[in-house]
Design a protein that fits this description.
With about 400 residues, the protein is an alpha+beta fold. It folds into 3 domains: about 10-110, Orthogonal Bundle (Butyryl-Coa Dehydrogenase, subunit A, domain 1), CATH 1.10.540; about 115-215, Butyryl-CoA Dehydrogenase, subunit A, domain 2 (Beta Barrel), CATH 2.40.110; about 230-380, Up-down Bundle (Butyryl-CoA Dehydrogenase, subunit A, domain 3), CATH 1.20.140.10. It has helices at about 10-15, 20-25, 25-30, 35-45, 65-75, 80-95, 100-105, 210, 230-255, 275-310, 315-340, 350-365, 370-380; strands at about 115, 120-125, 130-140, 150-155, 165-170, 175, 190-200, 205. Strand 2 (about 120-125) and strand 3 form a beta hairpin.
């Protein structure tokens, strides 16, 4: 089965249509620590879940630039929704590395949602025909509405085993621990999952070596350039847009509240007239513009390398890590400037800026996004030292 993929503009337009609903549900999302069913249904209807479904299953296999712009648009409505959609997108792409027999199962669901974690906090015991998986995994963003989960577990075998195996497990076979009580990205529902003697057949398990080296076990997908991009490069570029969009939302909401707001305890009858406001808005806008331009360059670089079928060197992989780190730093700085300029009335829960501030802060703390970690990694590379991370 194949379908005609919408254009990038069409996908961005579809994302934009979600914004009013996402904004209207923002307080519910934070209070209930998950996305509501009407938001899930609207995302399904938008077609955005098909952006990384393989074309042989009716998906679009959209390029990275489309993801940047789509997730930026969704983040203008709600950062938790954008974060969950970024996870569904990147993990749906990762699922394409499994054998076709497994893909036939996963993509039988027309609106499939795949989540997962790469932390190997479980054990996999070899049994006839597959593995028994046991363990507990935290930070499972979007799992409350997901159908499948990519789960990493260390195989119980010869001493010295250093790489996990990766298993595709139906979410219905896992236990959910409702422990996601956070001040940022509250609606991502990134709860803990637990496996107790879950049997996973061989065709739904791939080795860590194949997973990290992007050796696609799908005969169909192995021929596609997009599946030869390093796993963490694809996942990284997909997630830059949500940071840009959140910062854009912070700026637009600040400007909407600006007219008629006095600068209390000063002689300015309106904050709009104060030079300090002009400096704050100008600096924030420039940071956002630079972050968006970097995200676009990053996405275009990935597309160019796919088109030329170029290999990814270690330096290329390090460079990709620092892109999202620097984008996160710029987006966070822009939001902090605007939050500091928003006045005492901004602490009310129906004012978006403090929620955006908390969400961008939480996103920036993700281990693969944290600016300081990624900038250090890049600096090591520039000085000729080997990377201090295997996550490239």
């Amino acid at each position: 089965m194949t379908t005609t993929a919408p254009s990038r503009d069409d996908l961005v337009e579809a994302a934009g249509k979600l914004v009013p609903l996402l904004r209207s549900r923002a307080l519910w999302i934070d209070e209930n620590r998950r996305l509501p069913q009407d938001v899930i249904e609207a995302i399904e209807a938008s077609g955005l879940l098909r952006m990384q479904v393989p074309t042989q299953y009716g998906g679009y296999e959209s390029d990275a630039r489309a993801f940047v712009d789509v997730l930026a648009e969704v983040a203008k409505g709600n950062s938790s929704a954008a974060f969950v959609l970024s996870i569904y997108s990147s993990l749906t792409w990762m699922a394409g590395l499994w054998p076709d027999e497994a893909l036939d199962e996963v993509f039988a669901e027309p609106h499939v949602r795949v989540t997962g974690t790469t932390a190997a906090s479980g054990k996999a015991t070899r049994v006839d025909g597959g593995y028994l998986v046991n363990g507990s995994w935290g930070y499972n963003s979007g799992v409350l509405h997901a159908h499948w989960k990519i789960t990493a577990a260390m195989p119980e075998g010869p001493a010295g085993e250093t790489l996990p195996v990766f298993a595709l497990i139906p979410v219905s076979e896992l236990e959910i621990v409702d422990d996601w009580n956070t001040v940022g990205l509250a609606g991502s529902g990134s709860v803990t999952t637990v496996a107790r003697d879950v049997f996973v057949p061989d065709h739904r398990v791939i080795s860590g070596a194949d997973f990290y080296q992007n050796v696609s076990k799908s005969q169909v997908n192995a021929a596609k350039g997009a599946y030869r991009v390093p796993m963490l490069v694809s996942a990284t570029v997909m997630q830059t847009g949500q940071l840009v969009g959140a910062a854009k939302y912070a700026l637009s909401s600040f400007l909407e509240r600006l007219p008629g707001r006095p600068l209390t305890y000063t002689s300015y009858p309106s904050q709009l007239e104060a030079p300090v406001t002009h400096l704050q808005v100008g600096e924030a806008a420039l940071l956002i513009e630079d972050a968006e331009a970097r995200a676009h360059r990053f996405a275009d670089l990935l597309a160019d390398k796919i088109r030329r079928d170029e290999p990814w060197s270690q330096d290329d992989r390090v460079f990709s890590r620092v892109q999202i780190g620097w984008i996160a730093k710029q987006a966070k700085q822009a939001v902090e400037i605007l939050a500091a300029a928003s006045g005492g009335s901004s602490i009310f829960r129906d004012v978006p800026i403090t929620r955006i501030q908390r969400d961008v802060h939480a996103t920036s703390l993700h281990a693969l996004i944290t600016p300081s970690t990624n900038i250090e990694l890049y600096g090591r590379s520039l000085t000729g030292l080997e990377p201090n991370s295997l996550y490239l």
